[in-house]
Amino acid sequence: MTISRQDALDWIKNVAQVLAENKDYLTELDSAIGDADHGANMTRGFQAVLSKLPTVSDKDIGTIFKTVGMTLVSTVGGASGPLYGTFFMQAGAASAGKQELSAADWGAALEAAVNGVVMRGKAVLGDKTMVDALTPALEAFKDAVAQNVSLGVALERSLQAAEEGMKVTIPLVARKGRASYLGERSAGHQDPAATSSYLILKCASETWANS
After folding, report:
1. Is residue 71 within 8 Å of 48, Cβ to Cβ?
2. Residue 184, Cβ neighbours under 10 Å: how many?
3. pTM for this structure?
4. CA atoms within 13 A of residue 167's CA, in its CB half-sphere
5. Which helix (H) or strand (E) holds 57?
């Protein structure tokens, strides 16, 4: 089972749709501990991505991901642009020249993407950021691949870990980003970036389940 170039394109299109559908939800989460603009920013960024996809629809997967990343950097406001842009650009660098991705290839791309976010944002597990969803998702995927399960099962395990990590942010006190300014008052709220990261991985799992 592999992820084709069309699968990669379909994932990005589905992400744009799901983030638009969850725009108000993400804004509600961000209004509690941030600037109340995460939903709007992510939606705007991925709508811009949609307009760019036709220009790379015949390119390799690495180029597609890199284009997504560069578009997000230039269109998403605040810290989110560089962070999500880095995620996709690093995934693109790890996928350079590939017309399809094996489970191991996606694992390598995801690892590069998550490592890029960690380096860019200087966040670690427990800081109440997108890293709290992404890092468990990466580890679960790598463990699943090591057990030689199917791509679909590995993606599902990765998604479950991302969801658990997202929910773990609720009681945490933020140590990074705008939410950290609130100190103890940031506890009791789910992190919006961990939530959008979960939604992005959810789209990957659902889009690629039958690859």
Report:
1. yes
2. 8
3. 0.95
4. 5
5. none
Task: Give me the count of residues in the chain.
Answer: 211
Q: Which two tokens stand for residue 211?
A: 């690859």
User: What CA–CA distance (Å, rounded) separates 162 from 205?
Assistant: 11
**Taking the domains of the chain in order of start, what are their residue ranges?**
3-208
189 touches 135 (CB < 8 A): no
Give, rounded to a whole angstrom, the gap between the first and last alpha carbons of the chain: 6
* Residue located via tokens 């220009």: 55
- Tokens for 75, please give them: 């269109």
Location of structure tokens 């709220």: 189
Tell which residue, 134, 136, 137, has the closest CA to residue 155: 137
Token pair for 195: 């939530």
Tokens 């006190």: give the residue.
Answer: 173
What pLDDT does 211 receive? 67
What CATH number has the domain spanning 3-208? 1.25.40.340
| Cα 38 to Cα 102: distance, rounded to the nearest angstrom | 32
Q: Which residues are 92's β-sheet partners? A: none
Question: 60-118 pLDDT, tens per residue?
Answer: 999 999 999 999 999 997 889 999 999 999 999 999 999 999 999 999 999 999 999 99
